[in-house]
Amino acid sequence: MCQVCGAAGAEPHFGGISCRACAAFFRRCVHTKKIEITCTCKQRLASSHPCRHCRMLKCMATGMIKCKVQATREKNKIKITCLPGSISSLSLLSCNIIPRECANISNTVANWGEVDTKRKGLYGDSVFEMNFTQFSNVTKPDTLLLWDLAVKIFPDAKLLSGADKQAILCNFFPRWMMLDSAIGFCTSFEESSKYIASKDYTNMLLHFYGTSMPPEKRLKDDQIIETFKPYWDFHYYETAVPIYFKKLDKIEYMAIFLLLLFDDAYANISEEGAVLCRNLRKVVKRELKGYQTDNNCYEKRFIDTMDVLLLLEKAEEKITSEVLICAVNNVTLSDDFKAIFHCNIIPRSCFNITNTVENWSDLDQKRKELYGDCFYELSFLDISCFAKADSKLLLSIGELIFPDLNLLGEADKKAIISNFFPRWVVMEASIDYCTNNQYHRELLETDGLEKMMVKFYGSSMPMENRLEDEVILKLFRPFWKHFYEEIAEPVYQMRFDKVECIAIFLLILFDDAYTNISDDCSRLCRNLRKVVLRELKGYHLDNNCSEMRFINVISTLMLLEKGEEKFQEEVLICGLNNVSLHDDFKEIMQVEKL
Q: Start and end of every NR LBD domain (predicted)?
């Protein structure tokens, strides 16, 4: 029996048990743009079905949740240009449709056998007997073979300039080296594991580096092992083993190969090259998603595949450091090989982030004047009234540090604020949890948190429609529990400093991954994010931070995306339960964005 309307023929839908009609109602209404929906049962006949408001509450009471409903697709924006004597033509491709075939990736797999044969001709049958000098000598022809394969799959790559092609290969090859060796390890895991534990492992290491040094300048065996073994151990334990346990197949490995090759997140390629690479990456990602969907892969499979790219970024830093150590210790490498690694120097200054930190105190003072000294005493309605003014203050510091933002139109600035503000609310609350951790722990251990919740929502409701305290806690406690356990505590454990928190603020503000901003705005945001990411990497290197530190900062952005989804659900529940919110706040929260 349906737990919503009582009809027969109930089955699981979106986390609850209901009939198909109620499931269809929930799917239609859960993505509504209306923030406030009131009960109209008193205006209806006694024999009528429950109103939309009450029926939605019943659906949610059965366990139906928003995140299990597929989001509405964005309508294609069709621009029709009318010219004399011409016929308007419309694009038949929707950018939001994920293809269920993976023709390009499959084509890469099909052609890989031929490429592999040519590569074996370059490296020979005894690749494990090569030294570093011999390996570096075949680098250039190897990269050209891989590039020819990419051009065969994506002919548009031929349109790139010679400089862009060279830059793309320089950006690609260090990470490909690490992936290629990891794939070789994965195909013979048991044998490789035994080999690592044997004396043959150190003998191979001595041959690889020792025979690449001039005899008169060769280091002693124990010096070679002491210098280079930590790099090999890192590549084995921190790169190859984690990749092996992801159990990727050929299609997924080829997708990673293409994503590495067409990486647009570098400043040494032109804007036209970056646009082409970005579009090709979109194609590969959509095909990969479709492939994993058709093969009934678990939901996190796509994220796990993308995580390999982060592993390879760490490995790239290590191999770059290793090449530098080789130069210091007279290891002979070809000029082509050294030219590739010369392209990957990361600047060490973090001027823009530091400048933001220095100007933050002035901004903080203005925000305190806006919110008052008793921030914890404010209701949801009070906070929503300051949303527009606060977001403009936050955007102003971005304009101060990066004056190019002033060139954007008002529509783009408004879209940036709408995209940024919900995640910043979650991040700022997490920062407050970190700086006032003792206060929040006392709230969690006593009934102080429940009292705060009741006041926060209850005083934002009209007196005649105010819910009882128990109902308020039942509705909103799960959201606060999720925030403390899934967002605030993980951020607290990462122990970010001011520079890292400001870097996260800037990365959230300059997010180019939305469709509601113009191409010019997206390009500007992407370039500013590159600046911030490079400065953050340089800051970590100068402060001798662990290699996971940068990954932790980036993973926080994913945490905030989850927090934003929960926050959107919370605002929807507020609308269903007569919580009054300011129109400016509702306008920010109801903007459609992908």
A: 304-593
Among candidate residues 394, 400, 386, the one with its CA nearest the CA of residue 424: 394
Residue 547: inside a domain, yes or no?
Answer: yes
Q: Which domain holds residue 316?
A: 103-342
Q: Note whether 338 and 355 are same-domain residues.
A: no
- Distance of alpha carbon 271 from alpha carbon 279, whole angstroms: 12
Confidence of residue 10 (pLDDT cuts 50, 70, 90): confident
Task: Give kind and range of the element (H or E) at residue 12.
Answer: strand 11-13
Contact 168, 277 (CB under 8 A): yes
| CA distances from residue 272 to 152, 157, 524, 526 in whole angstroms, order as listed | 20, 11, 14, 14
In terms of Cα–Cα distance, which of 567, 421, 384, 576 is closest to 482? 567
Q: Are residues 355 and 337 in the same domain?
A: no
Contact 207, 348 (CB under 8 A): no
Q: Quick check: 344 and 315 in contact, CB under 8 A? A: no
Tell me the C-alpha distance between 404 and 390, whole Å.
21
Gap between the Cα atoms of 212 and 48, Å rounded: 86
- Examine the domain organization and report whether 50 and 120 are in the same domain: no
Indicate the SS3 state at residue 549.
helix
Q: Are strands 11-13 and 16-18 parallel, antiparallel or unpaired?
A: antiparallel
Tens of pLDDT, residues 527-551 = 888 889 888 888 888 788 887 888 8
Residues 39 and 186 in one domain: no
Contact of 258 with 105, CB cutoff 8 Å: yes
Q: Are 142 and 121 in contact (CB under 8 A)?
A: no
The burial class, CB within 10 Å (0-12 / 13-18 / 19+), for 107 is: middle
Look at the alpha carbons of 310, 314, 317, 322 in this order and tell me if their dihedral is positive or negative.
negative
Tell me how far apart the alpha carbons of residues 535 and 541 are, in angstroms, rounded to a whole number. Answer: 10
Lowest-pLDDT range, 76-80, 454-458, 537-541, 557-561?
76-80
Cα separation, 355 vs 532, whole angstroms = 12
Query: Does residue 78 lie within any of the structural domains?
Result: no
Residue 251 has phi, psi (to 5 degrees) of: -60, -45
In sequence order, what are the residues at sequence separation of 6 or more whose Cβ sits closer than 8 angstroms to the Cβ of residue 334? 133, 136, 137, 139, 140
**Which H or E run contains 469?**
helix 469-482
Q: What is the dihedral of CA 476, 454, 563, 36, to 10 degrees?
A: 70
- Report the candidate in 314, 237, 239 with the shortest Cα–Cα distance to residue 546: 314
**Does residue 93 lie within any of the structural domains?**
no
Number of domains in the chain: 3
Angle between helices 410-435 and 387-401 (to 10 degrees): 100
Q: How far apart are the first and last CA of the chain?
A: 37
In the numeric block, which tokens belong to residue 335? 């000029």
Q: How far apart are CA 572 and CA 34, in angstroms?
A: 8
Q: Say which residues have a Cβ less than 8 Å from residue 139's Cβ, sequence separation at least 6.
A: 173, 334, 336, 337, 340
pLDDT tens sequence across 305-333: 988 998 898 888 888 888 888 888 889 99
**Where is 278: in which H helix or E strand?**
helix 271-294
